[in-house]
Amino acid sequence: MNPVEATGVDPGDAHNSSEFVAQLRRLKTRTGLSFRDIERRARQQGYSLPMSTVASALNRDTLPHDELTGMLLRTLDLPEDEVARWLEVRRSMAEEPPAVKSRSKSVGAPCLLPPAQLPLVGRDEEIHVAGGFLKAADDESQCLIITGPAGVGKTSLAVYLGHKFISEFPDGQLYADLGGFGATPVDPRKVLATFLRALGMRSSAIPRDIGERVAMYRTLLAQRRVLVILDNVAGSRSARDLLPNGLGCRAVMTSRSTLADNSGTRLQLSHLRQDDAVVLLSHMAGSSRTAKRPVVAHQIVTECGCLPLAVWVIGARLAARPHMPLEDMARALADERSKLNEFTVGDVAVRASIELSYRHLGASAQRVLRLMSLCGSTDLSSWVVAALLDTDLAGAELLLDQLLELHLVEIRSTSSGRARYRMHDMVAAFAREAAHQEDAEEHRKRALDRVLSAALQLAQTADVQLSADFRGITRHHHPPQWTLPGDDAHRLLSHPLSWFDEEAEFLGRLIERLISTDATLAGCLAVSLTTFFQIRSHFDEWRQLQQKALAEAVANGDRRTAVKLHRSLGELATIVDRYPEAIEHFHKALDPPEPAEPDYTASAMAGLAYVYRLIGQQSRALSYFERAAELARSIDNANCLTYAINGSGVICFERGDLAEAERLYEESQRLSRLIGYQPGESLASRSLGHVHRARGDYASAARCYARAESLSLSVGDRLSATHARCWIGDAQVRLGQPAAGRRLLAECLHVYRECANEWGEAATLLNIGNAQLAAGRPRIAHLRATAAAAIWRRLNAFYWLAQALDQVAAAADLLGNSAEATRARTEARLARSQLT
Q1: What percent of the chain has pLDDT over 70?
Q2: Are 426 and 151 in contact (CB under 8 A)?
Q3: Which of 134, 396, 625, 811 could pair with 386 as two cysteines, CB 3.0-4.6 Å apart?
Q4: Ranges for the NB-ARC domain (predicted)?
Q5: Angle formed at CA 191 by CA 185 and CA 195, multiple of 5 degrees
C-alpha cells in the first residue's frame, strides 16, 4: 500500500497554500501524534522542531518554510520519495503574491497587524468597496466602519484589508483590540501609549495626560500615511481619541454596534451565502471530503446559519476527527436543535458553536478552558495554566495540546522561543459563562490565588536574578502560597529580563484585576516589577500600577506593603527629577516606628540621602548615607552598602576632597565586583571617572566611563549607559577628538529628552557648552550653558547650577558682556553658599 492509500492524504489534492497546509494538518492528525510528540520524535532524529513552531505553521494559511516542511514530513515517518513529492507540490505554490512584491515600506515603519486567522471567502464585494476607500486620494471620508453580528468575520475582514493594502500605507499599520464588548474594555490611554511607542517614542517621554497623548499622536500622524485599525469598538466615544487626523491616514473600525453617531464609509456584514459557507467548511475540513458529500456539506452549513465563526468551529471539529463521516456531524447538529434554536442569531450563534467543541473535550480540558478565561487576559503562558490547575508545566501543556487540536486556543512563539496561548474573545466569553455556571466561587478564587502566588514567585525570583536595584532584597517581599516546581521556575527564568518583557503586560493586568481581593499579594507583586520598570524606563506604567497598589494598601491599613511601595515610588520620582515628591515618599517609607523590612529601611535612607545631595543639603545627605551604610552592613545588604558608600564619596567629591572621594569610590567598586553587582560597579566606575576628569587625566577618565557604559548595557539599562556616554563625549573633546565628542553628546541629548530626564539633559548641555568653548564658539556655548543653568535652577541642584553659571560667565567674557559675566559669577557664589 502506498503512503497516500495508507494515510488518505494526498498533497495533489491541494490547489493553493491554505489547502496545502490543511493537508499537512490532516496528515499530522492521522498519525495520532501530538505537537509535543512531534517535538520529541524530531529531537530523536536530530531535528529541532519546537511544538510552538509546528503548531503555528499548521494554524496559518501561508506555506511553511521548505526546510520546516521536509523535517515535519520525515518526523511523521513518510518515505523519502513521498517527502520529495510533497516538497515538489509546495515549491510549485511558493511564488510570492503580487501584493507582497509591490510593498515599499518606510524603514522602521510599525506593523501591529495580527496574522489573518480565518480563510476569507464570500467578501469580494466588501473588499472592492474597502479597496476604493483605502486607496482614495481625497479626504472626504477617512474612516471605514465595519459592523455586523458577533462571529460574522468583522475582524477577519479588517485584518485582511490591512495586509492586502499594506503598500498603500508605507508609514505603518497600527492595530488595537479595544475589547469593547468584553468584561474589561481597554483604556484608550493605554492604546495611545502603545501606538506612540510603535511610532518611535520612548515610554518615558509619553505624556501622562490623555489630551497631551492625543495631541502627540495626531502630530506624529499628521504628515504620514498610516492605517489605523480599531477592532471591537463598543461606541464612538471609546475610539474618538484614537482616530488619525492626517489626510494620508485611514482608519478602519469594527463593531457589533452600528456606531450610528460616527460618520464614515460603512460596510454592513451579513451571514455568508451558502455556497461561500461550504467553501469555508472545505478549507477547514478538506476539499476532497466535502466534494464527495456536497448535499451533506450544504446541510451542515445551513445548521450553522452560514455564520463564519460557527462554520469554522464545525470545520475544526471535523478536521480533528478525520474518520468521522459528514453525515454523523449533520445528524449531531440536527439532534441539538432544541439547544441551538438561536444558532443563527448573533452572540447565541457563537456561543452555541463553541459549545459544540467544548462538550467534546475531556473534563480536565474543559476545566482548563474555563479557568483560562478568568485571568483578565486572553494571552497566557503555560505557567499561568499550571497555576490555575495546580499542576506543573508538563501537565498544563498536555491539556493545552487538546485545546490546540480543536482550535479553541492559538499558539504563538515569543522572541525567546517560548509559547503563549491565546483564546479568541468569543471563546473566552463562552468559557467565562461556563466557569460561573460549573465552578464554585471558592474554586475559582483559589485558582486565581495560585496564579497570583506563582506570578509573585517568578517575579521575585527574576527580580533577585537581575540584581540591578540598590534595594538589594535578600528575601521575598511576601512568601508565595503556591509555587511552581523548582525545575519549571528555573527553565522559565533562564533569561529573567526576557521573561519580564514577555509577562509585564499580563502581570500588570493581573495586579489591577486582583488588587481589591488581595491587596498585600498584589502590592508585593507590583513592587517586584520595580527593577524591570527601571531598567526598561517604563516610568508611566511604573507610576500608574504602584500608585493604585499604594492606594489600596493605605485604604486597608497595610503599612508594610505601603512602605515598600513608597520606597519604590520614591526611586521613580528621583529618576524623573521630582525631588519634593521623592522626599515625601522616602520619608513615608521611614515613618513607621517598626520598619517593614530592614532592606527597605536601608534603601529608603540611601534614596533619601541621594535626593538631599542633589538639592545641596550635603550634611543631611551624608548623615543618611552613613546610617544607610551602617544598617546595610548589619543585615548583609551589599547592594545598598555599595550605593551608600558611593554616595558618601560623591559628597566628598563635591566638597573638593578628591582623595577621600577616590578612596570611597574604590571601596564601592571593590565590593560591587566581589558580589557581582554590576550596576554598583558601573556607578563606581563613572564616579572614578569624575575624579580623573577633575585632575585633568582625561584618558583615565574615558576608560572609567567606557567601563561604566559597558556594565550598564550588560544589564539592559540604557539610561544608566547614557549617563556614562555623556561623560565619554566630554572626555573625547578634551582629548582632541571634538567632532566625535560632539556627535556622542548630541546622541545623549536625544536619549535624555526621550526619557524626560532633565538632570541628564542639563549635564549634556553643560558638556556641549564646554565643547563649543573649546571650538571657539562662545555664543553657542553661552546658549547651552544658560539652558543647563535653567534646568538646575528649577531642580534646586545648587552644586551643578554653580558649574553651569561658571560656564555662562566664561562665555559672556569671551563675548565681551562683562555685566552678564559678573551676574553669573555672583549667582554661582550664591548657589555654592546654599550647599550645607
Answers
A1: 89
A2: yes
A3: 396
A4: 138-287
A5: 160
H helix count then E strand count, the chain: 42, 8
Q: By the 8 A CB rule, do 35 and 404 touch?
A: yes
Among 172, 163, 168, 232, residue whose Cα is nearest residue 196: 172
Determine whether 383 is exposed, middle or buried from the number of CB atoms within 10 Å of its CB (0-12, 13-18, 19+).
Answer: buried
CA distance 319 to 287: 11
Would you list the DSSP string of 268-337?
Answer: E--PPPHHHHHHHHHHHH-HHHHHH-HHHHHHHHHHTTT-HHHHHHHHHHHHH-TTS-HHHHHHHHHHTT
The CA distance from 523 to 517, in Å, is 11
β-bridge mates for residue 419, sequence order: 413
Q: How far apart are CA 781 and CA 777, in angstroms?
A: 6
Helix (H, G, I), strand (E, B) or coil at 10: coil
Q: Are 263 and 155 in contact (CB under 8 A)?
A: no
CA distance readout (Å), 139 to 6, 28, 133, 265, 380: 60, 50, 10, 12, 41
User: What pLDDT score was predicted for residue 479?
Assistant: 67
The pLDDT score that the predictor gives to residue 339 is 32
The sign one gets for the Cα dihedral 519, 525, 531, 532 is: negative
Cα 420–424–429 angle (5° rounding)? 120
Cα angle at 462 between 206 and 479, to 5 degrees?
110
What are the tens digits of pLDDT across the range 308-321? 888 877 887 788 78
308-320 and 17-31 helices, crossing angle to 10°: 40
* Count of Cβ atoms closer than 10 Å to residue 410 Cβ: 22
Q: What is the predicted pLDDT for the residue at 7?
A: 60
Query: In whole angstroms, how large is the CA radius of gyration of the chain?
Result: 31
Which pairing describes strands 227-231 and 379-381: parallel, antiparallel, or unpaired?
Answer: unpaired
Cell triple for residue 539? 516610568
What's the CA gap between 319 and 284, in Å, rounded?
6
**Among 689, 813, 699, residue whose Cα is nearest residue 763:** 689
C-alpha torsion sign, points 581, 586, 592, 597: positive
Burial of 636 (0-12, 13-18, 19+ CB in 10 A): exposed
In whole angstroms, what is the distance from residue 632 CA to residue 642 CA? 9
- How far is the C-alpha of 77 from the C-alpha of 33, rounded, in Å? 11
Q: Would residue 503 be called left, alpha or beta, if left means φ above 0 and alpha means ψ between -120 and 50 degrees? A: alpha
760/737 Cα distance (integer angstroms): 22
Is residue 686 within 8 Å of residue 705, measured between CB atoms? yes
Q: For cell 452600528, what's the residue?
A: 258
Task: Find the angle CA(200)-CA(202)-CA(203) to the nearest 5 degrees.
Answer: 125
* Residue 443 grid coordinates: 474554586
Q: How far apart are CA 274 and CA 299, in angstroms?
A: 10
Distance CA(67)–CA(52), nearest Å, equals: 16
Task: Give pTM, 2 decimals.
Answer: 0.66
What is the chain's length? 836
Nearest-angstrom CA–CA distance, 251 and 711: 44
In what side-by-side order are the strands of the sheet with 419-422? 379-381, 419-422, 410-413
- Burial class from Cβ neighbours inside 10 Å (0-12, 13-18, 19+) for residue 417 reads exposed
CB 216 within 8 A of CB 201: yes
Three-state secondary structure call for residue 444:
helix
Nearest to 55, CA basis, from 408, 361, 504:
408
Q: What is the DSSP letter of 16?
A: S
Give the C-alpha separation, 373 to 404, whole Å: 15
Strands, E, within 549-678: which ranges?
none
Phi-psi group of 446: left, alpha or beta (phi > 0 → left; psi -120 to 50 → alpha; rest → beta):
alpha
| Residue type present at position 488 | D
pLDDT at 233: 86
